[in-house]
Amino acid sequence: MKNTFDIDYLTYIESFITEDRQQRFLDVLKNRTKHFTVAIEDVFQLHNTSAVMRTCEVFGIQELNVIEERFGKDIDKEIAMGAQKWVDVNRFNSTAACINNLKERGYKIIATSPHESSSPLDTFDITEPAALFFGTEKSGLSDEVIKAADGFVHIPMAGFTESLNISNSAAIIIQDIANRLRQSDIKWNLSEKEIIDKRIDWTRKTVKDIDFITQKYLEGVV
């Protein structure tokens, strides 16, 4: 259901950006999805977290979940290339909290791991909403994620090297499932409300002195 206040407020603040910018937001949001989300667990190297965020943004994954149980950090803005403005980052201080949150929101927990029951990427079932977990560079995913997982997926490899850097793995997997998703009949798009919410969010992040402008708007509608 549309919220009249949100629509009116959006119309007001969009008057402070160009029509081309407004259309760009709409075009990008047509390709955004929450059917899949990504979770990264205690990734030590900051640039990998930022690179995964950038990959999510490029391929239309709207949410990134970051577990910082051991390694608290800030996003490396240089590597993220502004992606932090357009991707929603949910932060958790424990793996359990992240898993519980995602399960409550209807996501299957999918561990990216060469587990004995792991599915090759090209046969991975994309029909159900899933949270794809990526682990640390050295030790992979924790036992907690492995035990909670509803399924596993891996990238088939043909060389001597048995693993990829997390940012490379995330890029390969996210690109594959995002492209397959858009070619499917699955209802993967954001809801009307989610689109309006993101238009407001992105416009607010674009407009200079948005707090002052918002206050003026509120004074006019009270």
UniProtKB/TrEMBL annotation:
Keywords on record: Methyltransferase, RNA-binding, S-adenosyl-L-methionine, Transferase, tRNA processing, tRNA-binding
InterPro entries assigned to the protein according to its UniProt record, in alphabetical order: Alpha/beta_knot_MTases, SpoU_MeTrfase, TrmH, tRNA_m1G_MTases_N
UniProt keyword Transferase, yes or no: yes
Enzyme Commission code(s) on record: 2.1.1.34
Example of a GO biological process term: tRNA guanine ribose methylation
Catalytic activity: guanosine(18) in tRNA + S-adenosyl-L-methionine = 2'-O-methylguanosine(18) in tRNA + S-adenosyl-L-homocysteine + H(+)
Top-rank taxon, per record: Bacteria
Residue span, tRNA/rRNA methyltransferase SpoU type domain: 36-174
Positions contributing to S-adenosyl-L-methionine binding: 112, 155, 164
GO MF assignments: tRNA (guanine(18)-2'-O)-methyltransferase activity; tRNA binding
A Pfam entry, by short name: SpoU_methylase
Family: Belongs to the class IV-like SAM-binding methyltransferase superfamily. RNA methyltransferase TrmH family.
Role description: Catalyzes the 2'-O methylation of guanosine at position 18 in tRNA.
Protein known as: tRNA (guanosine(18)-2'-O)-methyltransferase
Organism: Flavobacterium arcticum
Gene: trmH
